[in-house]
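Severity: low
Component: inverse-folding endpoint
Summary: output formatting inconsistent between runs
Steps to reproduce: submit the following structure tokens with default settings.
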């Protein structure tokens, strides 16, 4: 059972009583796993608290991934690894690109991403997709290289430059800085297609902002938060532009 100090910690950070907040959430049909992760409690602790306060068990059963997300809140490396493995397994079944795709040089990955579709889904939000038209490749570190460039291939990091968020995906091997940055694409809407030119604009178009950046930070590209599907364009259509930094191996577009 969650201790009184646990509840006090949660209520202090939220600025509202946990009981009041849970009753408000009852109208939203929020999954228990999401609530538990948000409060850094186990689902069992949350259920006990709800039962003690007479709050109806309104939420549907949590999915395996939602249960594992509790580990992200607690920054538990074991849980984080299990989340990624679970999401990657599900991604393979759905025909999404796997982490192995990104365990290559950044140039190979950048060229091979063009024409494919990137999908983003913020917590509780709609899926947003864009066809990739411009991707930059980086290898090696500079003073401005983000820590995410040293992640294992296929791990997403959200960096920030000039006040704008950028979507980076690590490539190659862990601890050897290299990554690609998604720089532009065509946003696929219900009744039209809109261009999102520039890495900051593309991140905005895909729904990434200061409220959910932590949700995408460190996610597997083969997971349920951000993923890539579809076929690449013919390599004869790919053009290379001059890099924008000493470690940039080229900006590729079609």
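Observed output (run 2 of 3):
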């Amino acid at each position: 059972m969650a201790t009184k100090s646990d509840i006090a910690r949660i209520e202090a950070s939220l600025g509202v009583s946990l009981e009041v907040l849970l009753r408000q959430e009852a109208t939203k049909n929020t999954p228990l796993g999401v609530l538990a992760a948000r409060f850094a409690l186990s689902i069992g602790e949350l259920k006990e608290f709800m039962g003690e306060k007479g709050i109806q068990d309104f939420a549907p059963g949590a999915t395996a991934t939602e249960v594992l997300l509790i580990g992200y809140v607690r920054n538990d490396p074991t849980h984080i690894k299990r989340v990624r493995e679970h999401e990657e397994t599900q991604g393979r079944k759905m025909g999404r690109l796997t982490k192995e795709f990104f365990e290559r040089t950044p140039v190979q990955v950048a060229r091979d991403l063009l024409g494919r579709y990137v999908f983003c889904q913020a917590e509780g939000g709609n899926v947003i997709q864009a066809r990739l038209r411009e991707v930059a490749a980086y290898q090696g570190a500079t003073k401005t290289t983000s820590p995410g460039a040293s992640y294992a291939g296929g791990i997403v990091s959200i960096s920030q430059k000039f006040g704008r968020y950028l979507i980076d995906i690590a490539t190659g091997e862990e601890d050897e800085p290299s990554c690609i940055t998604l720089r532009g694409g065509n946003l696929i809407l219900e009744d039209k297609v809109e261009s999102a030119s520039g890495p900051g604009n593309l991140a905005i178009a895909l729904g990434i902002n200061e409220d959910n950046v932590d949700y995408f930070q460190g996610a597997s590209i083969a997971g349920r938060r951000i993923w890539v599907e579809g076929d690449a364009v013919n390599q004869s259509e790919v053009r290379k532009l001059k890099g924008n930094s000493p470690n940039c191996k080229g900006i590729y577009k079609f």
